[in-house]
Amino acid sequence: MTESAYNIAVVGAGAVGLSAAMAFARDGFKTILVGGLDVRRDGRTVALLNGSVRFLEALGVWPALSREAAPLETMRIIDDTGSLFRPPPASFRAGEIGLDAFGWNIENITLVEKLAEAARTCDNLSLVPEFATGFEADETGALLTLADGRTIRAGLVVAADGRNSRLRQIAGIGTQTWSYPQSAVTVILAHERDHRETSTEFHTRHGPFTLVPLPGRRSSLVWVTSKDEAERLSRLDDAALALAIERQAQSHLGAMRIDGPRGLVPMTGLSVSRYWAPRLALVGEAAHVFPPIGAQGLNLGFRDVASLRDAVVDGQDAGHDPGSDEALLRYQRSRDLDVRLRTAAVDGLNRTLLTGMIPTDFLRGAGLLALSNIGPLRRIVMREGVLPRVGVPRLMQGASPA
């Protein structure tokens, strides 16, 4: 059995794990990425918000990604709940807060493949397509055991191994999970009319139905509905599903055609009791799971990575090693409130659509009407959604790695 030594070991080779490994390697840390690529094709995309774009620019990968992504210049919300207090459609434009776009939409698989291409040529970074089966920590470092019997010693292990994180379980970090009486149908579509770089979200009584632009006359769909209806839709052939989507979208993009893979995603959530254990930091879905609403999941995962990088670099400047308790406590403080607030916002929006109670409908309708008609309030909410001013990690402020 052989043992190798690194400053940082990242476990999990999805988008969050790849970005974490590159961020640390580009800072000069001897880094290893453990795990096989996540190459599932399920019709899912991610709307990369402004901070995530700046983060990817700092890693040097945004030029390759931007060619495959579509800008989100306008966000349109339509109340399709049948409520007595239904407000008129509301549109929010990125130009109002000085941005060209709120974010950029890209297929998940494309994002992972482009990050992997960059990781293969990144200095200070080794890639090992193996599973991690064991984890131990002591005062001097952590020891990872791989499925092939090799061991890796590192000052810090970053768990980016997903919602069922084995490392989180071994470390004994507690979780809280919940589910909703819904599932999401995801699919890539081609359509007759231009989307005009507008993301359109219909709020229905069963959940959001959201069409997000892709390059050309293509869009991605996340259709949140009841579990039974989602399963029925997922069994339809392409022509029948495209017609059902066109009708639900009120034909605002014209005739539709299925133009890529599709998926069926359960609506679940997960939170953790803490974001670290000795020599271990949780990032991405190892730390929090969101239903596919509001473009929060992966964007928060990138924010985890950028925050952890800041905590480790600052700790090093203060004379601490990468996996010190001081650095990990700093990371905990940077993530706790941010994730809790965004978890509450996504959960609250989804539950208000499901309730059907008149007071809740009134408050939701009044809130959307206020955002439509009160310019300063609308701009404050938009900025907080894509350009929060408090606690923004340095790599999301446009800075380059040290």
Automatic annotation (TrEMBL):
Pfam families: FAD_binding_3 (PF01494). Pathway: Cofactor biosynthesis; ubiquinone biosynthesis. Its cofactor is FAD. It comes from the Bacteria. Residues 7-309 form the FAD-binding domain. GO terms for molecular function: FAD binding; monooxygenase activity; oxidoreductase activity, acting on paired donors, with incorporation or reduction of molecular oxygen. Keywords: FAD, Flavoprotein, Monooxygenase, Oxidoreductase. Its EC number is 1.14.13.-. Belongs to the UbiH/COQ6 family. This is 2-octaprenyl-6-methoxyphenol hydroxylase. It comes from Microvirga flocculans.
